[in-house]
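Methods: example folding runs. The two proteins below were folded one after another, and each record is reproduced exactly as written to the output file, sequence line first and structure-token line second.
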Amino acid sequence: RQSMSIVFVFSALKLIPLFLLILMGLAHTRPELLIHVDLPLTGTLGEAILVLLYAFVGFESAVVPAGEARNPRRDIPRAITITVLTITGVYFLIQLISVSVLPELASSKTPLADVALVLMGGAGAAMLTLGAVFSIGGNCSASMLSAPRMTYALAKLGSLPEWFGKVHPRFRTPVNSIVFYAVLGLVLAVSGSFIWLAVVSTLARLLSYILGVAALPVLERRIETTDSQFRLRGGYFVPGLALLLCLWLTSFASMTAWLTTGGFFLLGSLLYLASSKSGKKNKIS
């Protein structure tokens, strides 16, 4: 509950400057930009989407602490759907306003701050800069809430060493998983550029999306349905389309991104094998 409160505060602090930017910039939009546009090359478009997708990924983290929610079966699907649609609309408006106000936006190193400088002056630019800081802080806070609980759950299932499943005696949080994730995140943050890390993160998530979509038919056969269950219309059309889209996007990842992701896959496999052997020994003893 305390962690979610921090995430809510950071979310509000980062959204307020963005909503002000939209409010101040709506009058400056140029709708003709949506019509007279040159389509990029297919290869360039795929690479751009792979990086851009980083702005949308992360919604799946909401299902990780779902076991601690009051009514996850009803609330989680609804929250994810509304969030993705809302953020898509916000991103669209911000992009339209930005290219309308600053036609040379592509050459800017601080695009939103420069747009805010034109619309609201120096105070607006400072506000957007602080909003970026709060956005990064909120992202880190949300990740620290969800990611360690995945390694904790894997440890409880025997897929990772028991060390990851240790719970703090006072706060009842997965302390070792939190420390491991924090150290790993710090090492990655200081070792690579934002674009490289974004591509690697997006690629790893796309692979998890592919596995999740592919598992849907199996889960549908094995899990008993209920009246209150969330049902997506169209059968397997949307999951099938999502699967093809994910496969298409992964084809644009660089060899470096694939090798890095493969390295983490190898590390996870070694940890899984170590935990499996340890579990067998414990059963024998």
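Second run, written to the same file directly after the first:
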Amino acid sequence: MAKQAATKNLRQLSNRHALVSVFLFAILIGTVSFDYYSTSTDIQGLQALHQDQPRLGHFAATLSHMLSPVDDFMISGDSNDRARQATSFIAFQHAYSEVASLPGFNKPDMNAQLKQIYDLMQRVQGIATGILEDQGAHPRDLALVAHALVATAQARAGKMAQGLDDALQRQGQDIQSRMTLLT
């Protein structure tokens, strides 16, 4: 009788340990699955940032296009350059709204940097309009100021691109270490 009770207790203990092992294994599988899902979501976000990077480069490149009509006007005095200037500012505004709407740039610091670039380029537009309408006494000096403002805006866009590149590297390393841990 004592031997049967001991065997029954051992069986119950064994069954209990088996249930605890299954429960812990289920928790392990759930944790790994959740982390895998989280990592795959982060990879998709990283891919989106990779796609945003060339758009930021294109945006920075369009900044200098705003002064092409002004430079041409300074050389030729062609009145058609006024219309080209208006078109180039519209193209800038389109590129700006495209970059500002990217998911990677919804952070407050990125928005502030984009706003600074936009403000600089509005000043450039004002100077360009003044030059094209012969409102300035020293158009060459104003053109130099406009070029300096564009260079400043491009430098800020370059800093944004560098910050984006740094974020991509950090996130990539984090995802790689998480995937190694999951494996």
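Comment on the second run: The radius of gyration is 30 Å.
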